[in-house]
Amino acid sequence: MDIDRRAFIASLGGTAVVSMMDHEAKAEALEHWMEERLDEAVQQAGEQQKFPTVAELEAAIETRTYRRGVGNLFVNTRGGMMRKLEPMPKNPTLQDFFRLRFAPANHVLQSATRALKTGMSEEVTLACLLHDVVQSMIKVDHGWWGAQLFEPYIPEKSTFAIKYHAALRFYPDSEAGYEYPDQYLRIFGHDYTPPEYIANTYKMVRNHRWYMEPRLVTVNDLYAFDPNAKVSIEPFEDIIGRHFKQPKEGLGNDNSPSAHMWRTIANPDAPL
User: Fold this and answer.
1) pLDDT tens-digit profile of 75-125?
2) Fewer CB near the last or first residue (10 Å), C or N of the chain?
3) In 44-78, which positions are buried (b, 16+ CB within 10 angstroms) versus exposed (e)?
């Protein structure tokens, strides 16, 4: 930060006052002055930032060649051609899907890493690891889709956390450490109101004995967007081994209620 020496001295009462201050007092005064200038800069940046309205986002629909709710495997939102995917193994495991279909999965790995470091339960940590990977297939209502994808294989609390984190993300909880993120002002519109089913779901979950499970997923969600973070699935191998019921036939081949979803993720180029 550039320091305006004249403005700083004037804020203290002039050179005569400054000359009577010892070095420690001057350092403290300078630090305080810089903090105030930084706060002002942040406030001005926030005031200058314009978030879209719901109407403006709806008007942009016809400017794109894809729909925003489509899964990452099925569209290249950055333009250019799709790349050919490496075939899945004959009996694919969860780790195989992370490596070949969910990768780089940086966000969920960061989320789970933070949950692990902050002492979350293994059920919550597992939910953080899995909560958004279904977005490779679909983004709309991804909490519900994700819960359906994993329900046959993981603890009930983890399923509950995945399913309802998507509704809770629209409702701040300062006591838990969750504030409404600016990112949602950009992607939903600053005047967005969640639909009735989301509001009703929030009310139900808020009074549920497992409320903190999905809430802690949202808390760890906010801290999981560092592009420079180095993360991997290795620290979670033991948790996966204890809590994920890997079918011997391989995911997608086990005739579970969500086997078709795993096959869809495994084979997104299938025409039918």
Assistant:
1) 887 777 888 999 999 999 999 999 999 998 999 999 999 999 999 999 999
2) C
3) eeeeeeeebeeeeeeeeeeeeeeeeeebbbeeeee
- The single-letter DSSP state of residue 61 is G
One-letter identity of residue 44: Q
Give the pLDDT confidence score for residue 68 in this predicted structure: 87
Report the length, in residues, of the chain.
Answer: 272
Closest CA to 109 of 245, 246, 237, 242: 237
Please state, in angstroms and as integers, the Cα–Cα distance from residue 250 to each residue in 5, 93, 179, 207, 266, following that order. 68, 6, 39, 37, 11
pLDDT at 183: 84
CB 262 within 8 A of CB 150: no
The pTM assigned to this predicted structure is 0.80
3-state DSSP assignment of residue 9: helix
Exposure letters 107-118 (e unless 16+ CB within 10 A, then b): bbbbbbbbbbee
β-bridge partners, 155: none
